[in-house]
Specification:
alpha/beta; D-Maltodextrin-Binding Protein, domain 2; 16% strand; single chain; 16 helices; 5-stranded mixed sheet; globular; 2 domains
């Protein structure tokens, strides 16, 4: 009798497990699949990881698959060739592509970050930094034509420094190798994203002395974009996607930096929690994370002014033609 009872319990448990697994798979299959390609993995994109980790996309009925595609050019190639549905990349890349002419324009529809995300790191500790200290030094900047480098030059000029004559500007090192080059002795100053800036400060390799984000003003620095055809054919998906991002943006500003850091830590397994926390705190304190997904006209103009100042603007593009705020406005009402 006891043996029969034990067998019955095992069969019942197996049945429950199978039913649960089937229901889970069925639920997963009912979600609309969406593929995102991010230009890099960065704490700067914290709200995106929050949306994934907290289930905000699933709440909207979306099964989002995230892949990292290093380099704006590669990310845009994946978008144009339908390798991904949505790209998270700097808005300048959409300008480069759209200026070449296309039957299916790339449309910016949900803003994720609204300032530059880089910091000026000095090899030596400086208690009272002023921008003129960069004169006659070696400055390890970012890739030519990318937003970090263009904003970097814009800020230097704003402080009366000619980046091509008043200092030695190095901008021919790949993004992935910039921090390594500085650590090995190249440059007196370097322009870095978090968490690398904080890691260097903790290890005594360099010291954060200024923020390019606070100096440059609001720009559509990193934006979710898609082909116009996708937004026209998948309006419901675009709205749901944007709503999930907005939920995450609100959550990031409602929670402490430590809570945000804990939420996104699975995406940065090799980075210590205190570094993630300090990085999030820096970005929150200067409002680098957009508080809502709306990309406004002033930000678009500021972006093109910075590109023009750097000599990288192929042509000025109309806000109305390449920015769609329909979904962002719907979810923030």
């Amino acid at each position: 009798m006891r043996k029969w009872l034990k067998m019955s319990v095992l069969i019942l448990l197996s049945f429950v497990f199978i039913i649960g697994l089937t229901a889970c798979n069925s639920s997963k299959e009912s979600l609309q699949k969406v593929q995102i390609g991010e230009v890099t993995r960065s704490i700067f994109y914290a709200p995106q990881y929050v949306a994934l980790e907290k289930g905000f996309f699933e709440e909207e009925g979306l099964d989002v698959e995230l892949s990292t595609i290093p380099g704006g050019d590669k990310t845009m190639t994946a978008l144009i060739s339908d390798g991904i549905d949505i790209a998270l990349v700097g808005s300048e890349t959409s300008i480069y592509v759209n200026a070449q002419g296309t039957d299916d324009p790339i449309i910016n529809f949900a803003q994720l970050t609204q300032t530059d995300g880089t910091f000026l790191v000095s090899r030596e500790k400086i208690d009272n930094f002023t921008w003129d200290m960069l004169e006659d030094t070696t400055f390890l900047g970012q890739r030519k034509g990318g937003m970090p480098q263009m904003v970097g030059e814009f800020v230097l000029k704003k402080h009366g420094i000619d980046p091509h004559n008043d200092l030695e500007l190095i901008q021919n090192i790949d993004f992935a190798n910039i921090s390594t080059s500085f650590a090995s002795g190249t440059g007196d100053f370097v322009q870095l994203f978090e968490p690398q800036a904080s890691v260097f400060e903790k290890e005594g390799i360099g010291y954060i002395v200024a923020s390019f984000g606070t100096e440059s003003g609001h720009v559509p620095y990193t934006v979710f974009m898609a082909k116009e055809s996708f937004l026209n054919e998948q309006k419901e998906v675009a709205e749901k996607f944007t709503r999930a991002i907005y939920k995450a943006q609100q959550w990031v500003y409602e929670q402490s930096a430590e809570e945000v850091a804990k939420a996104i830590q699975p995406f940065f397994e090799d980075t210590e929690l205190d570094i993630i926390t300090s990085s999030v705190e820096r970005y929150k304190s200067q409002n680098s994370f957009a508080e809502n997904p709306i990309l406004d006209n002033d930000e678009w103009d500021n972006l093109q002014n910075i590109m023009d100042e750097a000599g990288e603007l192929p042509e000025r593009l109309n806000y109305e033609d390449f920015v769609n705020t329909e979904f962002a406005e719907m979810v923030t009402e």
